[in-house]
Design goal:
The protein has about 80 residues and is an all-alpha fold. It is built from four helices and no strands. Helix 2 crosses helix 4. The protein is elongated, with a radius of gyration of 15 Å. The relative contact order is 0.14.
Length: about 80
Amino acid sequence: MNLTTMDTKQQLKVILAAEYTSMSAVARMLTEKTGRKWYSQTIFTKLKKGTMRHEELKQIYDILGYDIIIQKRPGQKLGEIHNA
C-alpha cells in the first residue's frame, strides 16, 4: 500500500488501523498536548473540508509516532507541475 498516493484523510485512516488506535484516542492526546479541546469529528471535518493547518497535522502525526518528510522530486525543475 502506497501512502503517498492517498489523500491525508485516507493516510490517517490507514495509520490509525496500523497503530491499533482511533481518532477519538488521538483527539484526547491532542487535547492533552495542546490544552485545546479536540474532538475526532472536528479532525475528520477539517480533513474533509481541507481546512487542517500544517501545524495541526504535524501534531497528529507526532502523536502517532510519524514524521512528515518533504523532499525534492528527482529530475523535476522549479515550476513544473507533477500529477501524482
